[in-house]
Write a structure and sequence with these properties.
elongated; about 45% helix; mainly alpha; about 120 residues
Length: about 120
């Protein structure tokens, strides 16, 4: 009888210590106070991952260039750039084409740049 009581107490103690009052422990912390800028944050992402095809002039069948601030901003607003880089690895239309999907942190930086108002 004492062993059952002991097991119950241990289980209740364990279960009561496994709670979470907030979702902040479950999410990746982000620094939302930092403004993402094209010149310091986004240009290097585009240069490293997109200009193999989206150069000036575009090559390898790319439909547009992504060499300037205006090119990239326009691609987000009218050409679905964020959708294309956010697609699952190997899915149709995923960018970079036939490449490796960008890390989610990089995609999130591009999204935040848009949310911050496309700061140059």
């Amino acid at each position: 009888m004492n062993i059952k009581l002991f097991v119950i107490i241990v289980l209740l103690t364990t279960l009561s210590s496994c709670n979470n009052d907030s979702t902040s422990d479950l999410t990746t912390p982000t620094n939302n106070t930092v403004t993402i800028k094209y010149s310091t944050d986004i240009a290097s992402i585009i240069n490293s991952n997109c200009l193999n095809c989206h150069a000036s002039p575009p090559i390898n069948g790319a439909p547009m260039q992504l060499t300037t601030y205006d090119d990239v901003k326009n691609a987000i607003l009218t050409r679905g750039l964020i959708d294309r880089v956010s697609r699952a690895q190997g899915s149709g239309g995923m960018m970079p084409d036939a490449g490796t999907r960008l890390p989610q942190a990089t995609i999130d930086k591009i999204i935040k740049w848009q949310t911050d108002g496309f700061v140059n």
